[in-house]
Specification:
By secondary structure, the chain is of the alpha/beta class. The protein has 29 helices and 27 strands. Strands 21-20-19-22-23 form a 5-stranded mixed β-sheet. The longest helix has 29 residues.
């Protein structure tokens, strides 16, 4: 390599025009070498595109590609087409002839520059051409529109020639001020990276034609005085203004740009990490040097000034690698450096392993071989990297660890840099938070989450043949697990091999295989089901359901989605995976012949056929979650968790599937009905309750949005006690169609209404059953001796009237929205007798005869010692208190009542009025609470009557 002394055109000591000319010649010589390398890697038609572009911007000719009109801006500064360009143009259009423009016509196209990987170590067949079209600042809007249209037509023409080209209009005067309207490359993140983009332009762009950058002529040590230096060059005519264009300097890079660049590369790195590692590390290098950043373009210019024009050493990718290598060696981080080397090698994509060479190796291959030797890589290492397209789970998993570590490290570095430099604007802070969520969603491990192991590492992880095995877990006696093995292994072979992956549950393993593409439609599976009931039919259908629910590839998560908490978007519930519910029942014959077909309380033996549930959820952040439910409350626990995760206002697509050997369709349908009913109730935004019966046990889902609760009740008395608990607001109760065999309750409970008290009664021979649903839908029940409807209902009517009277008396008279008085409604359950209840019919409220006297028993309950109450009874206005009679109160009152009666026949005594203000204050209390106190007081009083 020829070297000369370093040129130093110093502003203070004087500037030599000859020296400036030498400098420009050096840059052009280097540019010529890069252009030759770019052409070497292109097809003849693609070469023709690059050769002809300057001509097409220089002239407007209706026969040439890109023609819009005669008024489209045309004329390229300092350009005249050579013979080769004219010959190629005539091959396109034989009738084209070029006529030179005489005089001094305007030339509004100031320069054409090629950006991208063309001419670099990483140039590939699919490399695109990003062309900067620098134009005069005085173009009108209409002229710019025509020029933009011309660029679009040229892009289409280039595409027809097998070249992907993108054109970007640049007004240098606006660019210097940091003003631009569009992205300036196909890999451009926007206006937040002005100086970093300029840095990349100066060290990588290939000049095609037109004016050359004025920046070439400014020494590095004059970068901080760039404006003064260039003003001197132009004003004193050291260089002609019409030969140069000015895009600005790189004396200082604002710290916010490092954050912007890092955010962009991290965003891209989540799906294509190898492509982003080099740029992420370069951003880290720059940020670590801030504020005295020695950017690569300044090193590049310094080399040209020193006449170090080695094309290999100044290759844009080599320059980036050397700078990162220098940084990581100084930090003693060899593992990160190895990752950078692998990333560069895979980016270049020239296989160096044995048997993959070429007879006439390209300059790229030779340079890469030099690097690999320098790194000490052997044939094994090269063969491993060259077989990346065949990498499967084990290689990908190991590589993922290094890549994810690097991405997470870069995120932490950026976040810390932003804090230290205090450069986080509101926009950057939001971007950082969104990016943090992207990384979390893509790579964070958490319970139940299926790990995605292939973020752009290998093209295809699908295996041709796999073996799926259930086997005893030797570390947990009595437990089993599932293993996935390469190849088709027999029952005698698989124990001699290490599995690709193990999981406790089958669905977790299958979902992992599907999400990572390990199993696809062509994979052949050998099955050893162990003690499970899994069949090949069920296995095939499980995989099909996963493919429906999690359609690959997943769509990119939008920023809007990441600004909100993740919500489920697709949910798959699979019932009885690998379990035949009828196989274990006590009497299969009964199960198969009975008329009862409820899967939750099946046949005469009352068995629950829903034994296990596995749920797969794809959420709005593209996280895939798997959860397992088994045991007595599996269905209700799964349903509760599903409902608690429902987003407000929308609902996920729900699929319920069952593929077990017996009654699969009926089981899936039954479970889906329950999910649909509960989901619809919850979405109505009221505090509903949903009653379900599983075998002989009762379950209530309390459907409060975001706080769904599951209450398990072992028997009918427990259910009645639960239903009798007071509610704080109206809570509708809904019954699953199979929920209750008690037909009275099955008819009564769904009829609850707000703002009224509903009384239901059924006459059963010598007794009657009373049910009351209060204004909040709490149930009160009482069984009484029956004489006639008058004696059954009138005492209750009197009691309800008295408490409603007290309630109304406490309501404010001047309320802006007066509360409507509660009404008591009556219904009879029919038919009477001990047979099956069939219907409910409304009845008029019983009339309380005014002329017929009744024995008035009023109770007042107040506070006593902590946790205790004191009772005072008034019998026809005569007071009897615990203070006076102690624990003999009810006996004393019972004797008083008997003495006052004229009949000899014993009959029940009723509480006709009740006051709880001493216990509860003036707060409004639900009617159910009064009825419960009434029941307790009447029970004690009537027990005492029996003893008199």
């Amino acid at each position: 390599m020829t070297r000369t002394h370093e040129i130093r055109p110093d502003l203070d000591e004087g500037i030599d025009r000859k020296v400036l000319s030498q400098l420009r010649a050096r840059f052009l010589k280097l540019n010529e070498g890069r252009m030759a390398r770019a052409m070497e890697g292109l097809s003849p038609r693609q070469q023709g595109v690059l050769n002809l572009l300057p001509l097409f911007f220089h002239v407007n000719h209706p026969l040439l590609p890109g023609y819009v009109s005669g008024s489209t801006p045309a004329g390229l500064s300092n350009y005249e087409p050579d013979a080769q360009a004219l010959a190629e143009a005539q091959r396109l259009t034989r009738s084209f002839s070029y006529k030179a423009r005489h005089g001094n016509p305007p030339r509004p196209i100031h320069g054409l520059f090629l950006m991208g990987s063309l001419g670099t170590l990483a140039q590939a067949d699919q490399s695109d051409m990003d062309v900067w079209v620098c134009h005069a600042p005085d173009l009108s809007d209409s002229e710019l529109a025509e020029l933009r249209k011309k660029c679009q037509l040229l892009e289409a023409w280039a595409d027809s020639q097998g070249a992907e080209a993108h054109f970007f209009l640049i007004d240098p005067s606006r660019f210097v001020r940091g003003e631009r309207d569009t992205q300036l490359s196909s890999d451009d993140c926007g206006t937040t990276q002005h100086y970093l983009l300029l840095d990349e332009f100066y060290r990588t762009a290939i000049w095609l034609a037109g004016r050359t950058p004025l920046w070439w002529l400014v020494p590095v040590y004059e970068e901080t005085r760039y404006a003064q230096y260039t003003q001197t060059l132009l004003s004193k005519r050291f260089v002609p203004a019409e030969e140069n264009l000015d895009l600005g300097h790189l004396a200082r890079i604002p710290p916010g740009e490092f954050i912007g660049a890092g955010l962009w590369q991290l965003f891209k790195g989540i799906e294509s990490p190898y492509k982003s590692v080099l740029k992420l590390l370069l951003t880290e290098v720059y940020a670590s040097e801030h504020p005295k950043v020695e950017c690569l373009s300044l090193r590049f210019k310094q080399a040209v000034f020193a006449n170090r024009l080695d094309l290999d050493e100044l290759d844009p990718y080599i320059v980036v690698y050397r700078r990162i290598e220098e940084y990581l060696k100084a930090r003693a981080e060899p593992e990160r450096l190895e990752l950078v080397r692998r990333s560069l090698y895979l980016k270049v994509n020239r296989k160096l392993s044995s048997g993959s060479g070429a007879r006439n190796p390209s300059w790229q291959r030779l340079l890469l071989e030099r690097l690999a030797n320098e790194w000490g890589w052997d044939q094994r290492q090269l063969a491993m990297l060259d077989s990346r397209s065949q990498w499967k789970v084990r290689q990908v998993s190991a590589e993922r660890w290094a890549l994810v570590n690097e991405l997470n490290y870069s995120y932490r570095f950026l976040t810390q840099f932003a804090r230290t430099e205090q450069t986080v604007s509101l926009i950057n802070k939001r971007d950082l938070n969104v990016l943090g969520r992207r990384l979390y969603a893509a790579f964070e491990r958490k319970a139940g989450k299926i790990e995605f192991i292939n973020p752009g590492i290998a093209p295809d992880l699908a295996e041709d043949t796999l073996t799926l095995v259930q086997s005893p877990n030797r570390k947990e006696p009595g437990q089993s697990h599932w293993g996935l093995y390469n190849g088709s292994l027999s029952a005698l072979e698989w124990e001699n091999f290490a599995p690709i992956k193990r999981s406790r549950e089958l669905l977790e393993l299958l979902t992992w295989c599907h999400r990572n593409g390990v199993i696809d439609s062509t994979t052949r599976l050998a099955l050893h089901p162990g003690t499970s009931d899994l069949s090949e039919f069920e296995l095939f259908n499980l995989l099909g359901s996963l493919q429906q629910t999690i359609a690959l590839p997943l769509t990119t998560v939008s920023e809007e989605q990441l600004l909100h908490a993740s919500v489920p978007s697709e949910v798959l519930v699979l019932v009885n995976i690998g379990v035949d519910p009828l196989k274990h029942h006590r009497d299969l014959n009964i199960l198969m012949t009975t008329e009862r077909t409820d899967s939750l309380s099946y046949a005469g033996v009352r068995e629950n056929l829903v034994l296990t549930l596995d749920q797969v959820t794809l959420n709005s952040w593209n996280e895939v979650m798997v959860s397992r439910y088994d045991g007595a409350h599996a269905l209700l626990d799964c349903l509760r968790d599903y409902l608690n995760n429902l987003p407000r206002g929308t609902q996920p697509r729900l699929r319920v599937r069952c593929f077990c050997h017996n009654r699969a369709q009926f089981i899936a349908q039954r479970v889906e009905e329950i999910f649909d009913m509960a989901q619809n109730l919850l979405l109505s935004q009221l505090n509903h309750r949903y009653l379900i019966q599983v075998q002989q046990h009762y379950h209530v889902l309390e459907l409060v949005p975001g706080q769904v609760n599951h209450v398990a009740l072992a028997s009918l008395p427990a259910l009645l006690a639960y239903l009798g608990e007071e509610q704080l607001s109206y809570s509708p109760l809904h019954l699953d169609p199979m929920a209750l065999e008690d037909q009275d309750l099955a008819l009564v409970l769904p009829m609850g209404q707000p703002e009224c008290i509903q009384v239901f009664y059924r006459i059963i021979d010598s007794e009657a059953e009373l049910y009351v649903l209060d204004e909040f839908n709490a149930l009160w029940q009482q069984r009484l001796p029956y004489h006639d409807e008058q004696s059954l209902l009138v005492p209750l009517q009197r009691f309800l009237q008295s408490i409603l009277y007290r309630r109304d008396a406490l309501l404010p008279m001047d309320a802006s929205q007066p509360v409507a008085p509660l009404e008591a409604l009556y219904c009879q359950i029919l038919p009477s007798g001990s047979g099956r209840a069939r219907r409910v019919e409304p009845r008029p409220a019983p009339l309380t005869p005014v002329d017929k006297p009744f024995y008035d028993v009023q109770a007042i309950i107040g506070k006593a010692a902590p946790g205790q109450v004191q009772v005072t009874l008034y019998c026809n206005q005569r007071e009897f208190s615990e203070l006076e009679h102690g624990d003999q109160l009810f006996s004393v009152v019972a004797r008083e009542i008997v003495e006052q009666r004229h009949e000899t026949q014993r009959y029940r005594c009723y509480i006709t009025d009740l006051d709880l203000s001493g216990l509860l204050g003036d707060a409004q209390s639900p009617s159910n609470l009064y009825l419960r106190y009434k029941s307790d007081l009447e029970r004690a009083l009537n027990d005492a009557l029996e003893q008199v």
